[in-house]
Amino acid sequence: MSLKVYNSLSRQKEDFNPINPPYVGMYVCGPTVSGESHLGHARPFITFDIVYRYLMHLGYKVRYVRNITDAGHFEEEGRAAEDKISSKAILEKLEPMELVQKYTNLYHWAMNQFNNLPPSIEPTATGHIVEQIEMIKKIIADGYAYEANGSVYFNVEKYNTDFSKLGKPYGMLSGRNIEEQLDTTRELENQDEKRNRNDFALWKSAPPEHIMRWQSPWGEGFPGWHIECSAMSNKYLGQEFDIHGGGMDLQFPHHECEIAQSTVCNHKTPAHYWLHNNMITIEGRKMGKSYNNVVKLTELFSGSSPVLTQAYSPMTVRFFILQSHYRGTLDFSNEALQASEKAFKRLWEAHEWFAKYPITDHAGTDAALDEKVQQLVAEFDEFMNDDFSTAKVLANIFDLVSVINSIKDKHIPETAISSNTLRLLQTQLKIFIEDLFGLVSERQGDGNQLDGVLQLLISIRKDAKSKRDFMTSDKIRNELAALGVQLKDEKDGATSYTIA
RNA sequence: GGUCCUUUGGCCGAGUGGCUAGGCAAAGCUCUGCAAAAGCUUCUACAGCGGUUCGAAUCCGCUAGGGACCUCCA
Q: Nearest nucleotide by C1' from A47 CA?
């Protein structure tokens, strides 16, 4: 059974066959670090983290390249105006790299909170100005770009005419017909420099107040919005590579432009498989700056956004995202997040208990149950191979959580299921929950000292209970609960605790 | 205006022709000093209308609602 992925280019699920197995090259569009990451940004990075982890699980050697866009317009609220006053001392002026550093750090912090694996290479746009200029030169030399007032534009019409003959029209990824577009595109600034409305900038001449600028054959300026991904994917993954990922909103024009640029330079469509995650919505609308409905990740984790009734942990969010398919929209609401929070807790507690469960050799007494467990486990791979259906895997895992809890509470004897099946379950749950889904324990603060104190309180409470002194035992339990420590009397007489 | 997508139970969300999705919430029971947790049971939906079919949430058409992209955007 092999992996199938939905390819936006062909609009269907295809067998995944890398160009040069066991190697796989994957490029994912990273963030623009001119502001703080929000919940919407979490989706692609968690989605492609799962893709990355699963490809490695299948034995591929993956080079995962995810860029950081740190070139362009960089302004911080309240500081933008100051910057234009040239007489300011250097430390008072807006230094773009300071912003880049600040938001890059925050972004890395958030990725870490989500337990996303770092990519193999994380190139920056500003670190690849030379490569971008070289690529632009090549596009001009081939006749597909022209200069105007120190800016360079890609000639979309010429590209479309020439490459349509080769079956690669502009718009092939997003399913757009460029001829139809001409009358529907809105009026933009600097249209006069362009020969055609569909043309896009490869290099922009920098006006005097623009603080990020580089020397180029066309004068001082900065690269266009699409060229960096072409230049960096080409450099680190080659002219042709396996997977290109990103959010659906990047399909047009960003990815379309990437295809055009790379195709001119290399005469090849850069990526074989284009994977796009769908958007996170809030009350049915896409989360985005223009809608004024963003929930920043720092607000999400601290609960400080006005739309949040409480804080949600990184694992709750990760679990929430995994419960849906990456190609569908996912609607955010407090109710939905709270459901995920509880569900994740239940899943994790069962997994944590079962992972340490000592299994002794025995045959199973309940063949039907044994078979059901095996079936549920076997389907993990099947579902993941079907375009990364994490939601279905989780549904199966919850069926298994019931089985595990039944064993824990002795509603089902351990011997019902054969030790071989139990061991398989143990192994596979660890692989899928921890290694592939990247879920981790959220328990914090259970250092040795704290644990010792709690064990002491539990022991005092147990003595009180045995003397039927429920006043004392309830006082301990209730006051600990008020402090966020919840005690739980287990079936075997022991008491466990969880810290909120 | 153009292109495309979508509409699943109180909420979130899988699912593309016949078989229980799953989670959360709610109700009952079991367990229990009480509580929490857990287990079992119940709630069995597919926007509306029409068509295709032995059979449709799933395919087709129409109607209505919602959304995305066309502009920086994950």
A: B74
